[in-house]
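Q: Joint fold for the lines below.
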Amino acid sequence: MNTSASIPFSRMKGFMFFNDVLPRKSRLVLAPRAADPNAGKDSNVSDDEVQKQQRVMQQPPVSLSLDDVNPVGLGRRSRQLFDEVWRKFSGLGQISRTIRSDDQEALDALLVREGPMCEFAIPGAQNTTVLVVGATSRIGRIVVRKLMLRGYAVKALVRRADQEVVDLLPRSVEIVIGDVGDPTTVKAAVEGCNKIICCATARSAITGDLFRVDHRGVYNLTKAFQDHNNKLAQSRAGKSSKSKLLIAKFKSASSLHGWEVRQGTYFQDVLATKYDGGMDAKFEFTENEDAVFSGYVFNRGGYVELSKKLSLPLGYTLDRYEGLVLSVGGNGRSYLLILEAGPSADPSQSRLYFARISTKVGFCRVRVPFSLFRPVKPDDPVLDPFLVHTLTIRFEPRRQKPVEVNATTKQDLRSFKLILEYIKALPTGQETDFVLVSCSGQGIEPSRREQVLKAKRAGEDSLRRSGLGYTIVRPGPLQEEPGGQRALIFDQGNRISQGISCADVADICVKALHDTTARNKSFDVCYEYIAEDGRELYELVAHLPDKANNYLTPALSVLEKNT
Amino acid sequence: MALLKVPTPPVQWRCNVPPTTLAFPNSRSISAGRGKGREWNWRVKCSSSSSGAEIEKGAGNFGPGSPVRATNVLVVGATGTLGRQIVRRALDEGYDVRCLVRPRPAPADFLRDWGATVVNADLSKPETIPATLVGIHTVIDCATGRPEEPIKTVDWEGKVALIQCAKAMGIQKYVFYSIHNCDKHPEVPLMEIKYCTEKFLRDSGLNHIVIRLCGFMQGLIGQYAVPILEEKSVWGTDAPTRIAYMDTQDIARLTFITIRNEKLNGKLLTFAGPRAWTTQEVITLCERLAGQDANVTTVPVSILRFTRQLTRFFEWTSDVADRLAFSEVLSSDTVFSVPMAETYSLLGVESKDIVTLEKYLQDYFTNILKKLKDLKAQSKQTDIYF
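A: Joint structure:
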């Protein structure tokens, strides 16, 4: 095999041409084989070897010092040069190309891993740590992958870290072993997390399991997360922006101080007053340690109200909060919440804003976002929470609905009893902190549906009252198929009937993390369907998940907050 | 060209279910489909005249009554330019992705980081293939041999073995990426092989989809965009050939729409970008977007052809000749493009969602130039500190 004779010829063509190309016009000389330091090496038919055997000497045209003519150094340099040129040259004649490994690394970073050129990646996601609870569930698995593709740091709470689980999760996910039912392990899990996606569900429909995972589990997570936020805030010498602000807590007789009971009528009707039974109301601290506002209004157009001038702690204003949450009990009447807002120096400029709240028999928490308050005079501007100085709870017999507890006892809708536990302000925020995957109740075995839904709803409730920004997704029956294929329907009010793919639910969870319209919303979601006759009046919002559009924002913007 | 005379080997396959259970030599892949009802143990035998590979493997969990989930896909060639986008897209759409990669010292960690499962196998070693196919519904084959290795090993022998295994193990869909116009250029070995593979796949009786591609935008970055920014010399040809480059992310997206469309089984689709470009046009575009002139070295196609003709004379340079074979195509004024309107409507895709080369390169340059600016700003800051 006479290689040395043929190569120079085949290369010569190239060299003559390269000569014009090289940045420095240098004379290229073919090294004789004898001068090749690796001359003893066995010659091979492969092209790489052929290249290696070729040495192109490069001589600086003018200055010739002894250092420059080190043959090994020159040979090495010239070979690099030649390799480069040959690589580019041969690249032109090929269909597929290999990029050198160092180039590849730099390109990968931009095109595939974290750069803005790479699909799915979200800028700034590296700084967000998401805790995925139930990471091995059908939805959780996909959620974790989606988060990884978008560049988030992911923590996964799993119960056992055996090989099977570890194989299921991407390699760089931080695995935390624990159980949502156990507050201590949950505490460790939320450490350092910015957001939580919870798609855990009880493995059985046994009431104990349901209670532990779906109800207490969510409660433990919200509590641990709030504690963690508070701890972080304390280390910055402040209060967590995610914690609620206590406006009033009725736990002792002295806490009733400052609350005023008043009565009045909307209109003066001489004839009516004559026959009216009058009205009465009192606010007292009972032996059962309840603060009870009770009484009756028999007047037409009469009302009684409980009012207090708010005194917020120094440095707090309500504009950093987005609503009120009241923990109340009683006999299920509805009330008007009235906020008085205006410059505190000049009471004459105060404006009144009202929102109607309904309570249940027994205890419940009522969330009233400030956006729900309407001005009493329609021409007034919208409520500015910053200016609120007085809070009033008003009872009036108008527009009361009978409570369906016991049909036999006749209710007098003009009497009322309201037990007050606390009133707090809910912190405002842009994004959701906690995404909870609940269920719509479809597709659960009918015999267990009640129990499952009860536990799920209890979990949802504990999240809603936590003050965290929440998004509660209630998917229809889950299907294991690829996502993004069919239009989705977003709805509120238990009307959905279709299933949905796990991947679509996962996509909603991940999109909700940074979507301001998703904050503090609960919604049902399922595949698109044709509404039955008579039900098509409902406006159901269908959107097709796709690469180009963000379907979540328009879908959710029409849905109500804080439901 | 001996390669062209490779006969399409007849596929023979049979499987029978023996009463006795077999020991599974590979527990890793068996575990992928565990826990689903009865486990059927198959005895699969497949042979082909070309590879002569005799495969004897037990496989579980695809017997009747325990169907393989349609979300289980195997991506062959997952580390490549297209493969990695396929993997990302598949994971995002909720597929369970298994990647067949060659055993290598530096394992493909990024695939695992995204949540894919990585299995080691080598198409040139047929005995390693069957274990990777257990529990798989769809095989997406975007593998191509590296330019530096003999073209026949992976692209022909490996693929034949893979298709035979897929057939024998009851894979329900096989997606194969080919090259546009591959039937018209038998003189280019890679294109000829792709064309033969298409035929082989059709004859195998597998439920398959063939997707022919033109060119990747991602490849242009390393070839033109980076050198222009680094003010290095850019090599181009004066070939009149036009290629409709396409973003691999779009290819991946369309691929999965295609896979889910049962009407497209057995079809041949061609994906092309919105517009066909010559090398010169691409370089001009890059120059405009980068705001600087490129140091362009134009290699006449005639030189490429000459080099190829020359290297073909010698047995030991035949590999080089094979690799340069594309220059034959370059010298003709072929257009690598097809009108896509019909494909778009077939797939329900809108043409505005397909990235154009202008947009793609513009994104790249804005991002890079911004990064460079940031770096400069940082270095200025540090100057003050020093």
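Q: Anything notable?
A: Chain B has 13 helices and 15 strands. The radius of gyration of chain B is 23 Å.
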